[in-house]
Amino acid sequence: MARAQSQTKLNRRKFLASVALAGAAGTATTIMPQGAAASPAIAPPIDPAARPSALPPTAKMAAAEAGTPQEIKAETGMPGSDFMVDVIKTLDIKYLPCNPASSFRALHESLIDYGGNKSPEFLTCMHEESAVGMAHGYFKAAGKPLMTLVHGTVGLQHAAMGIYNAWCDRVPVLVVGGNDMDAAHRPPGVPTFHSAQDINTLVRDFTKWDDTPVSAQHFAQSFVRMYKIATTPPYGPVMMSLDAGLQQEPIREHGEKLYIPRFVPSSPPQGDSGAVKEAARLLSLAGRPVIVVDRAARTPNGIKLLVELAELLQAPVVDQGGRMNFPKTHYLNRPPNVIGQADVIIGMELSDFWGVVNGFVDNDAHGIGVNETKIKPDTKLISINSVELITKSNYQDFQRFQVVDVSMPADVEATLPALIEAVKAAIPGDRKAAIAKRGETIRKAYADGRENVKRAAAIAWDASPISTARLVMETWAQIKDLDWSLVASEGNVSFWPNRLWPMEHHHHWLGRSGGYGVGYGAPASVGAALANRDLGRFSVSIQSDGDLMYAPGVLWTAARHKIPLLAVMHNNRGYHQEVMHVQRLANFRNRVAYLGNDMAPLGTSIQNPDIEYHKLAESMGWWAKGPIKDPADLGAALKEAVAVVKSGQPALLNVWTQPR
Ligand SMILES: Cc1ncc(C[n+]2csc(CCOP(=O)(O)OP(=O)(O)O)c2C)c(N)n1
Ligand SMILES: [Mg+2]
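Above: inputs. Below: predicted complex with magnesium ion.
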């Protein structure tokens, strides 16, 4: 990008260049590293006169090296990045989780000094993946997107997995990467290592849109546009490469007055009326309709609409848990085994319809996966899925191809009101009694199912290390009277919260990472806890050990910014899922998985030394306790931790658990 060659800029560049040159020359002529003469491996001092392109330092340069640096002359005119702050402020973005970097120093300076560090407020992050994970979790609790700034190359590389998770989880995150693009004027050395022609290419395959503005006005249009695209269902992350020069240079208006485009949200895409009618006809005539939902309820209203449809049809709902879609306490909430008997299945925002109606058995007798259908050959399939509108090619988040009979590339929440009305109109009067009877049978199955789950949870109740069911239910006992929000449950605790906690409200369950990139749980729970703090809710997370150690610095961010969160650790001392994968392959090959001398599964355990997570958290400003191994100690420790979190601090309990 061409930079304005203002007098100020030239002065500053000359000044910086002179300091750098004088520094190099000064070093060469006067300083010898200790022991250098004796070691042939270390280059001899450089004779400045022998260097073809560098002049010996002038007296002025040498003085600049030794003396106090001169003040840089103040820039005149409105800095481009101040205008950028004006643009950003129109969108009411509350926070900016961010790891700092020079490629966006100008915007950083404007945000704090011109923008007053409000809307957005900086949250200091220790890893770019943590920043994106925080924005991801925040959105799911608050329903509002955050932005982050990343160092265009290296920072974006760190952020990439978090962006992929947000993409797969259909969550908007606004990512702006600083990038010093003018090869003729950017500082050489490190800043040039950190520049690229096109940083956006790194994440283009898993963002909804990206751009590289070349003027202040272009920035204004693109920032509002990226916000609009990210927040139009299906939601998704978006990316902007932001030139360091454009941020830094004063505004040039090209004779045209700069303006900030007004943000007007787009309406979500609604299913075609003919397809809605056909879906309603199939559902209302079905003997055993089943509703399967994954990310169907975008908002609390989505839950209400789903309850209305399910009750109208007295159809069981299989909630795959991408979001809090349907109350766990409702008798129509059923496990996936109802799918086998269905004659009509409607899938709503499913990430994997094939997986709903087919089974895959890993490693059969021939060592490869086997596919088997789970449904009857004449079962009719209906799909409402907005993600079909943004399918890309490279990453395989679109899963296997599944033929469906009625396909609506549309947003479920936006389509449900029309579908409900169409179903009401389509149900024949003489089917109403049969539909009501279907409901009674399901009600009984629901009650029996609850009893079975409770019996299963009681198994090994007193075991040490602590059973995952006990971990989850002891936690429940301490939070049940609060306005709680389970902000993340990472690792695998056999889905006990989803099976046993009476989740009813949108914030009771926020879903998982989306892309199953491990390392999501810790930052997403801090981000969601921040949103819940502002909304007056109590945040709890089930925090696995493997997940926490990808980027534990987010613990510091939570303490620094006073984000109350109860992190109850599922510390099974390993990457247990991978323990099982290696074991499965050893079994298949008729070998004993080699345990190594310390009797731990090799390459998959996190033991010996055991990580003292409570000390780790304490060192970063958390209240913490552990390791808790005896289940009898758990209740009291949780009680203490809950009181700490209620007082506004984060608290972590390091609990030793059974593998799953
Ligand atoms: C970034 C990333 N690296 C590796 C994996 C592979 N992986 C899947 S589950 C898992 C174990 C996670 O350990 P933990 O969070 O402690 O959960 P546990 O399985 O022990 O319950 C790993 C390493 C992954 N999904 N993502
Ligand atoms: Mg683990």
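The longest strand covers residues 538-544.
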